[in-house]
Write a structure and sequence with these properties.
6-stranded mixed β-sheet; 16% strand
């Protein structure tokens, strides 16, 4: 029986000896510091690669005051997050950007009130460099907890949480303008009884899309606006209510693609032809949904993955002192595009 031996991990001193520089020089290069001439930087990097040196994260954090970790907080229960392709697309964008900057993603979900306190404690505990937060609701305590924790934060979606969030940095899409484009298209098709199935009206994206609908349909019958919840089940329920109260409805603008998919199922079940009898438009252009509905869904495209990338990029720039000195970019609102398919 032979004893296994473990090679000792290379140290800063070993890297310094291999590169022919001081330990302090190696530390500055490894930890991203300034003031080292490029030829020396290359020698250190070559020595790191040759020796297989891996920085001690705890020690590195003491020097850089960075953890190379970012919390992604989604203010929704786990079943909703993993059932909705929107969150997968946004997380993919965030993950790509963080990975490119060698930073880890820590996912935090809020299932109930106890989870808010847990998330607040975690953020205040100095475990992460910053937070990316989205799908907030107007009565959500998270903005206050995050503000109290003093954690650099970028929000997904236009803030709507009062004076304390006036300076919040966020990434959003032109929800109101996209909604106007969708409804104008329905008007141009000659539709006159145009309905809107909203999202949850405690979220600013849903409010903005409702406002865009009203910008065009100024004198719409109040019965033609029915509240949904961004889910297929909510779309089914709202569509049944519309057909019961307004059987002459000839078009529907749904607040998202999942809502539209539920509405399409009800229309098919009740013998309404799409788009002949009722035209339908969604919002998001999530391809796993929009291209697989029957018929394929006309919808307003927002670049969900790009929104995630931009959220992460804004946060990482904010953590970079050089970027702060140069002046940070402000919040970003991305344009939307109407994508025409067979449903309208």
């Amino acid at each position: 029986m032979t004893e296994s031996t473990t090679e000792p991990r290379p140290t800063l001193e070993a890297v310094a000896a291999r590169a022919g520089v001081s330990r302090a020089t190696v530390s500055r290069v490894v930890n991203g510091g300034d003031g080292v001439r490029e030829p020396l930087v290359e020698r250190v990097r070559r020595a790191v690669e040759e020796l297989g040196y891996v920085p001690n994260q705890a020690a590195r954090s003491l020097v850089t005051r960075r953890h190379d970790a970012v919390a992604v907080v989604i203010a929704e229960p786990e079943p909703r997050v993993f059932a909705d392709p929107f969150f997968a697309l946004q997380l993919r964008g965030i993950s790509k950007e963080l990975t490119a900057h060698d930073s880890q993603l820590v996912l935090l979900l809020t299932e109930g009130r106890d989870d808010y306190a847990r998330v607040g404690r975690y953020l205040a505990g100095g475990h992460v460099d910053g937070a990316l937060v989205f799908s907030l609701h107007l009565d959500d305590p998270l903005p206050g907890l995050i503000h109290g924790a003093g954690v650099p934060t970028v929000f997904g979606g236009r803030p709507g949480w009062g004076e304390g969030m006036r300076g919040a940095v966020y990434v959003d899409s032109d929800n109101r303008g996209g909604a106007r484009d969708a409804v104008r298209h329905l008007v141009e098709l000659g539709r006159t009884r145009i309905a809107h199935i909203t999202g949850p009206l405690d979220q600013t994206s849903a409010v903005d899309r409702l406002d865009g609908f009203r910008d065009v349909m100024v004198d719409a019958d109040p019965r033609l606006v029915v509240q949904g919840d961004f889910t297929p089940t909510g779309g089914e329920r709202a569509m049944r209510e519309l057909l019961e109260n307004c059987p002459d409805v000839d078009a529907v603008f749904a607040a998202n693609d999942l809502t539209a998919s539920g509405a399409l199922r009800v229309l098919r079940d009740q013998g309404r032809r799409v788009p002949d009898d009722v035209a339908v438009i969604g919002f998001d252009d999530m391809l796993p949904v929009a291209e697989q509905t029957d018929p394929p869904l006309t919808t307003v495209r927002q670049d969900i993955e790009e929104m995630g990338k931009l959220m992460a990029r804004l946060l990482l720039r904010g953590l970079d002192r050089r970027a702060v000195q140069a002046g940070l970019p402000s919040s970003v609102v991305l344009p939307t595009t109407l994508v025409r398919r067979a449903s309208a």
